[in-house]
Amino acid sequence: MFSELKFPVPWGHVAAKAWGPLEGRPVLCLHGWLDNANTFDKLIPLLPRDCYYVAMDFSGHGLSSHRPAGSPYHFLDYVSDVRRVVAALQWRRFTLMGHSMGGAVAGMFCFLYPEMVDKLILLESLGFLLAPEDTDAWLKSKRMVIDRLLSLEAKQQTPKARSPKAALQRLLEANTHLTAEGGAILLQRGATETPTGLVYNRDMRVHTNRESFTVEQCVKLLLKIQDRVLIIVAQDGLLVPHKLDSRNHFVKALREAFESTLKEHIQLVEVPGSHFVHLNKPEVVSGFISDFLTAQNARARL
Questions:
Q1: Which end of the chain is more exposed for a tag (fewer CB within 10 A), N or C?
Q2: Distance of alpha carbon 102 from alpha carbon 2, whole angstroms
C-alpha cells in the first residue's frame, strides 16, 4: 500500500507517493528523465519494511506541475525540487536512491548537501552528467536547449491524444529497455485520460540541460563521500564499457576510476538486465539494495 503526497511550490505542486511507516528511516527515490515515481512500484515492496520511502515526480513529470511559461528546465532545478521536498518533509538526514537522470540529480544533491545524505544508491547511473570533452559539442548542446525552448513556444502545440494501446506503443518505441508491463506501470502516472484519448503528462519543454563535470572532478567529489555509495549497473544497460562506442569513452574512464582509485570507497555491482532492471526484474537488484540499507555501518558487505 502507498499514499499520495503533494508538496506546494510557487508554480503549483510537486507530487510524490510514499510507502512504509512514517517514522521509518527516510529514503527519497528519484526517477529518470521522462519517467515518474511509478518506476519504483515493483522494487520498493521488496525492500526493508522499516524504511519510509518517498518517490517524487520531478517538475514537468508524472503528476507534478509544469514550470511556468517561458521557463526552461535546468538540471539544478531538479536538484531544487529535491531540496524543496526534503524541507517539506522536515528530513535532516536521509538516504537517496536515483535511477538514470535521477541518479545524477541525487549525486549533485549529495555533493551540495553532504551533511544531509547518509547513503547514496545509484541505479544505472554513475552519479554525474559528464561534460563533453569537445568544446564545440558543449556549445552546440547549450544552443540546442535555447533553440528547442523557443521553437516549442512558437508552435504552441496541443498535446497529442492517443489510444491506450498507441500511447503504450509509443512509450515502448522510445524506451527499448522497457517491458510492456513496465511501460504500462509508467503510463498509469505518466498520462491523463481525456475525451479524445490519453495525453502524456510530461512537459514538452523537459530536456536534459546538463550541469556537467570532468572525470577528474567526479573522482574528487566521490572521494568526499567515501563509504556511502552503492552503484548498480545492468549488463545490457547504458553503462557497460564494452558496449559503449567511442563517444562514451568518458563513462569507461569513470568506471575505471571507480574500480581503481575509488575501489575501497564505492561498491559497483553489475547485474543481468537492461536499463530498467529495477522495474522489469526488481528481484535482481533488491537484495543488494536491502543489504546496503540495513548494514549498520555505511558500507554494505556484498
A1: N
A2: 21
d(CA 65, CA 69): 12
Cα–chain center distance at 5: 19
Grid coordinates in use for 259?
Answer: 574500480
Helix, coil or strand: residue 167: helix
Rounded to an integer, what distance in angstroms lies between the CA atom of residue 289 and that of residue 295? 10
Pick from 97, 86, 128, 125: nearest CA to 221: 128
CA atoms of 245 and 167, how far apart (whole Å): 31
Query: Which positions are annotated as active-site residues?
Result: 100
Query: What pLDDT, in 10s, does the model give residues 133-169?
Result: 678 877 888 888 889 889 988 987 788 999 999 999 9
Distance CA 251, CA 231 (A): 14
**Residue ranges of the chain with per-residue pLDDT less than 70:** 129-133, 208-210, 224-227, 241-251, 258, 261-264, 297-302
pLDDT at 140 (0 to 100): 86
Sign of CA dihedral 145, 151, 154, 160: negative
Between vectors from CA 40 to CA 273 and to CA 59, what angle results, nearest 5°?
120
> Cβ distance 95 to 205 under 8 Å?
no
First to last CA, the chain: 29
Residue type, 132: P
C-alpha–C-alpha distance, residues 255 and 239, integer Å: 9
- Entry pTM: 0.91
Answer for the pair 288, 302: CB distance below 8 angstroms, yes or no. yes
- Res 159: pLDDT: 87
pLDDT the model gives residue 302: 39
Round the CA-based radius of gyration of the chain to a whole number and report it.
19
